[in-house]
Amino acid sequence: MRVRCDTTTAWPRLHRHFEQRGRGFDLRQAFTADRARFDAFSQEAPEIFADLSKNLIDREAEALLFELARECGVEAHRDAMFAGERINSTEGRAVKHWLLRAGGEAGEGDAVLVRQALESMLAYAGQVRADAAITDVVNIGIGGSDLGPQMAVAALETFRDPGKRFHFVSNVDGHELAGVLRGLKAGNTLFLVASKTFTTLETMTNARSARRWFEEQGGRDVARHFAALTTNVEAARDFGITSTFGFWDWVGGRYSLWSTIGLPIAIAIGAAQFQDLLRGANAMDAHFRSQPLESNLPVRLGLLDVWYRNFHGFTSRCIAPYHSALKRLPAYLQQLEMESNGKRVDAQGQPLPFATSPVLWGEPGTNGQHAYFQMLHQGTDTVPVEFIAVRQPAHALPVHHELLLANALAQAQALMQGKPDPGGHRHFPGNRPSTFFLLESLTPASLGALLALHEHRVFVSGSVWGIDSFDQWGVELGKVLAQDIAQRFTSLSLNGLDDSTAGLLRRIHPPI
Ligand code: F6P
């Protein structure tokens, strides 16, 4: 039974605690007063160590947050997801991306389908890897059909087949596709058309243009040079693609890199490594399912997110991966969290009187230090920062990695400690919160665990807020209006348009 956070007994107690102890909380004093703070606020989880101790939270607040989660029924909601119940209530769908990484050995029903789909995708990936004539793989997809695979292929670059280049085309902006096509030869290219629905405007427009280009280049064998990754296999066949790899409506777009949408990843790193990616995620699933709330990393993070958003009132969170291969992680996490929890009504459609998803943003360190860290240290807003560091580098260049890690630690330290200076400009207030994630090395397994950790963390905060984290109705209106405006380029009509849109359209397309 789901109970919305603001109707619990823990909610007003958290408010009281925040007024008494949270608003004036000082990290420096907290460490002095509690020598066990680092241990109390660190958490081991599969493949990941997390230090939460530099956050603006005390043990009492965290205990109240666990009570909140229990009152909200977070555990029952989690169990309902893992039992395959239709917890995506506004779309009437189950939420089973976790099943894609559950191993499927002895399963039945959907687990059998998952295993078959995985086997056929991995076999195809193996064929492509062995085909030396294919030098370029172009993934055409957007949102979850782009961000996950693109992020993971970049993150796992050291595991990548050096004989192939990977390109990701998502935008309907033809500059992107044209730029990629410029460097390609039809006979050496494999296009993967990735779309859960196989109706998305950007993807279908790019896929049609790619096929036209392929034919204009003399390409004949569409069956060999195009494959589709979709739940809508029929539409892919109508498009003329015979190599199709299906998945199911119970895999949300932003949770789909574990499905056949992961084909570019499998081509890049091979079957064994792709299985390791799934294994790492599965280990985090097991942690999330079995650990008590108090030692459950996704739960602790999701509740911290609630604490920051609804009590401290922080509006954004900065993602700072201190590993250049994780450069697309912030964009991936943006979709994961903001499309999942950027909602203003609860699962029953009732307006919420409290805030939900923060804004996520970020860039790899140390680059961010020379751009926006100024604001993090001395700006007027407090922005919790999440450092993601990797202990073992995947290169042999001396000095670099120590400097990289020293910088990550120093930034977290500087944010917390600050530096008093009566002069004003050189004053660092400190007491600025951060979380520090440490991975032993960046491998398929640790990446899988990191991503599943974030999926579940988003689940926890969405669950406390009582929202449906698995729909995305907010993307629909713009799609409909874009279609309406696009047809005005030929109808030349401004009827019914607001003055601003009409004025802009007249300037963009003077015949109107
Ligand atoms: O418009 C948003 C969205 O539906 C995302 O949720 C999804 O990941 C993306 O579009 C792409 O959708 P599809 O995979 O169906 O092309």
Automatic annotation (TrEMBL):
GO CC, alphabetical: cytosol
A single GO molecular function term of this UniProt record: monosaccharide binding
Active site positions: 339, 370, 479
Record InterPro entries: G6P_Isomerase (IPR001672), G6P_Isomerase_C (IPR023096), Phosphoglucose_isomerase_CS (IPR018189), SIS_dom_sf (IPR046348), SIS_PGI_1 (IPR035476), SIS_PGI_2 (IPR035482)
The EC number(s) this enzyme carries: 5.3.1.9
PROSITE patterns: P_GLUCOSE_ISOMERASE_1 (PS00765), P_GLUCOSE_ISOMERASE_2 (PS00174), P_GLUCOSE_ISOMERASE_3 (PS51463)
Highest rank taxon of the organism: Bacteria
Pfam families: PGI
CDD domains (alphabetical): SIS_PGI_1, SIS_PGI_2
Pathway of action: Carbohydrate biosynthesis; gluconeogenesis; Carbohydrate degradation; glycolysis; D-glyceraldehyde 3-phosphate and glycerone phosphate from D-glucose: step 2/4
Location of this chain's protein in the cell: Cytoplasm
Principal cellular location given in the protein's record: cytoplasm
One Gene Ontology term from the biological process aspect of the record: glucose 6-phosphate metabolic process
Reactions this protein catalyses: alpha-D-glucose 6-phosphate = beta-D-fructose 6-phosphate
Keywords carried by this UniProt record: Cytoplasm, Gluconeogenesis, Glycolysis, Isomerase
Enzymatic class: isomerase
Family: Belongs to the GPI family.
HAMAP family: G6P_isomerase
Protein name: Glucose-6-phosphate isomerase
Lineage: Bacteria, Pseudomonadati, Pseudomonadota, Betaproteobacteria, Burkholderiales
